[in-house]
C-alpha cells in the first residue's frame, strides 16, 4: 500500500511540474501538456478536470476542428477518421513504479530547464544566422502575433527569400 | 536553364576530391569525441536505454513494411555518385577548363553534389531500414531504443529531422549559397521519395503517389516550422515539436526518450556550429552517432581547431596548383 502511495505522490509532483509546462503558441490537434496531465493525473488519482472545473473529456477537439486540420492536407496520410477514433479511444494501461515516475520527473525538468540548450550553446552564429539574421525573430513575432507581415514585407519574402 | 544548374547536375565528379569520401567528420579527427563505445557511458542512446518505464507504444500494426530489398533504391542514383566511379582524365580536364573559361561560381555548383547528394545521403541513412535486413546502429536507436514504428512515413520523419538540422546550419551561410543548398537538399529528397514509393512501396498509381508526395510536403513544412520555433524559443517547445512530429503525438511517451532526442539534436547542432562555412559547404560534416557523447570543446581546443582550418585553407588558396573546381570563396574563419 505504501508503495502505491509513493507512486501517487510522485505522480502528483509530476503533474504539478506539467502544470508549469509552457502552452502551445498555436493550437494543434493534440496538446502535449493536456494529454500528459490527463495521463499522470489518472495515476495520481486526481479528478480529470481542467482549471475551470470542466471535465477534460469535453475538451476533445470538435468535429469541425478535426475537419479543418485534416483539410489542411489534401491526402491525410494515416489520419483517417477510423484511425483517429481508434487512437482517441484507446486508454493505455501502464504500470508505473516510483522509480520510473521519478525518472520521468527528472527528464521533464531537464527539458524545462533547457539543460542541453545551455550546455551545447551554439551562440549567435546559429541563432542569428549570417545569411538571414532576422529569420527566427520574424518567425516568433509572427507566431506571437506581435508583428504582422504586411503585403510589402510578404512580397519581399516571396521575391528575395528573406 | 542556367549554366550553373546544368553544371551542378553534370559535373559532380569534378569535385570528387572535395565532398564525397570523408569517412570521418572534421571534429571526429580531433579525437574530441570518444568513439569507443565502452568509454561512452553517457550519450543520447544510453539515456534512452536507461528508462525503467518500459512503455509499449500503441500497436498500430504495421501494414506497410518496407521489405523489398531486391528492388532497393541505392543511395547513389547515378553512376557519377558512386564512390568507385572514376571520371576519364580528358573529361576532367575539359571540366576544369570550362570552369576556368566561364568563371563558374564553384560554391553554387557544389550545392548539387554536396547538399543534393552527400548531405541527402547521410540524412537518409539515419533511419533507413528494411524489414528483412538487420538494423544499422543509428536505426537501432530510433526503432529499438525510442520504439518508433518501422514504417515509411516514420523514416521520412527521421530524415526531415536531420535535414532540418542541416537547414539550421545552411541559414548561417551567405544567403544565396545557403538557400541554394537547402533547395538542392529538398529537391533530392522528393525525387528520391518518389522513386522509393514506386519501386519499394509498390505504389503503382501516379495519382496516389502524387497525393503521398503532397502530404509529405505538408509534413515537411509543418515539421520545419515546429522545429524552428522550438530552436528559437526553448527546449519545452522543441520537445513538444519532437513529440508531435517524430513520435507522432504518442500518448504514453517516455520523457526520457524525449530528453534523449532533445539532447541528440543539440549535440548535432553544436558540432555544426563549430564548423566554418567552407568546411560545411564542402561536405566535411557527418552526424555524430547517437551512441557517442559529444564533449564540449575547451577554448583552447577551439582555438586549435580554428587555426588548423585556417592554415589548411590558406595553403589551399595560395597553392597555384589547386584546381579551379576546388576553389571556393566561402569563409573558413567563421
TrEMBL record, chain A:
Pfam hit, one: UQCC2_CBP6
GO biological process per UniProt: mitochondrial respiratory chain complex III assembly
GO cellular component, one term: Cbp3p-Cbp6 complex
UniProt superkingdom: Eukaryota
Family matches, as InterPro entries: Cbp6
Entry GO MF terms: ribosome binding
Name under which the protein is recorded: Cbp6p
UniProtKB/TrEMBL annotation, chain B:
GO biological process, one term: mitochondrial respiratory chain complex III assembly
PANTHER family for this protein: UBIQUINOL-CYTOCHROME C REDUCTASE COMPLEX ASSEMBLY FACTOR 1 FAMILY MEMBER, UBIQUINOL-CYTOCHROME-C REDUCTASE COMPLEX ASSEMBLY FACTOR 1
Limits of the Ubiquinol-cytochrome c chaperone domain: 144-287
Protein name, per record: Ubiquinol-cytochrome c chaperone domain-containing protein
Organismal lineage: Eukaryota, Fungi, Dikarya, Ascomycota, Saccharomycotina
Family named by the database record: Belongs to the CBP3 family.
A single Gene Ontology CC term: mitochondrion
InterPro entries documented for this protein: Ubiq_cyt_c_chap (IPR021150), Ubiqinol_cyt_c_chaperone_CPB3 (IPR007129)
